[in-house]
Amino acid sequence: MTIAFIGGGNMGIALIGGMIARGRAAEDFVVVEPSVSQRATLEGRFPGLRAFEAATRDALAEASLVVLAVKPQQMRAACTSVAPFVHAVPAVLSIAAGTHCADIARWLGGYARIVRAMPNTPAMVGAGISGVYAGPDVDVAGRAAATAVLEAAGEVLWCAREDALDAVTGVSASGPAYVFYFLEALEQAALELGFAEADARRLAYATFAGSVKLAQASSLDPATLRAQVTSKGGTTERGVATLDAGSVRQTFIDAVKAAAARAQELGAASGKD
Fold first, then answer.
1. Strand (E) positions, 24-89?
2. Do residues 89 and 208 both lie within one domain?
C-alpha cells in the first residue's frame, strides 16, 4: 500500500524524507505535483518514488492514505481533482492551514474520513510539532496512519475539537516566526554592544537553543527557571524590568491570540464558494 501526496513542496518533502529515514521505502510514495521541475527534484531526491502531473486512478489506486499537502488557496482544486478516486482510500490527511473538515468533505464529494493537521516549519528538520484532529468517521487505523506520517517530522498533539487547531496555528504554527523575531532582536542587541555579526548570531542562537534544552531537561516551569537566573539587584532583573515596562509579555500573548483569530477568519473564508 502506498501513501499518496497531493503536492510535493517543502512540507511534503519533509514528511516523505522523515518516513524514509525511519525505514519506509521510496517506492511506498506517490506524489501528484504539476511542476515538471519539482517532480524531477522529488524523483532525484527519493529514487523509486513515483511522481505524477495530475491525480489519476492509477496514481491513487493502491493508496492507504492521501495527504493533501498544498497551499490553502489550492485546496478546493486539489480536492476536486482527487474526488473521483478517493472513495476507497481509508483516510485523507490535510496539512493545509485553515481548511475545515466539512469543506474538505464537500469538495471531496461527501468523503468524510478526514484528519486535519497543523504542522510547523521545524518539521523540515525533524523537529516540528503538529496539532491533529480526526473527524468522527476516521477509525483507529486511519488515526494511526496519520500519526505515522506526522511523527516522522516531530511531535504530535491530538486535539479533541477541530477549532483547537486555530489555537495551534497561533501558538506553534506561527510560533517559529516569534522565535526568529526574538533571535533577530537579541542578535541586533549584541551587534549594538560591539560584537561582530558572526559572534552576535552565535551568542543569540546558542542562548535560545541552550535555554530550551535546559527547560526540557528540567521539571520546573518557565517562571521558576526565569526566577532562578534573576538575582535581586542584578543584571537580569534590570533587563526583565525593562521588558515588563514595555508590556512585552502581554504584547506577545496578544500576538498569539491575534494569529489564532486570523486562522479562524481564514478558515471561514476558505469555505465560501
1. 29-32, 50-52, 63-68
2. no
Which helix or strand (DSSP H or E) is residue 17 part of?
helix 10-21
User: Average pLDDT, stretch 195-204?
Assistant: 98
Residue 73 is predicted with a pLDDT of 87
157 and 179 share one domain: no
CATH of the domain at 225: 1.10.3730.10
Same domain, 50 and 86: yes
Considering the domain architecture, whether residues 250 and 151 belong to the same structural domain is answered as no
Q: DSSP letters along 155-173, please? A: EEEE-SSTTHHHHHIIIII
> With 90 as the cut, is the pLDDT of residue 31 above it?
yes
pTM: 0.89
Judged against a pLDDT cut of 70, whether residue 210 lies above it is answered with yes
Q: Are strands 2-6 and 63-68 parallel, antiparallel or unpaired?
A: parallel
How many angstroms separate the CA atoms of 174 and 170, rounded? 5
Q: How many CA atoms lie within 13 A of 172 on its CB side?
A: 19
129 and 249 housed in the same domain: no
Q: Determine how many CB atoms are found less than 10 A away from the CB of residue 56.
A: 14
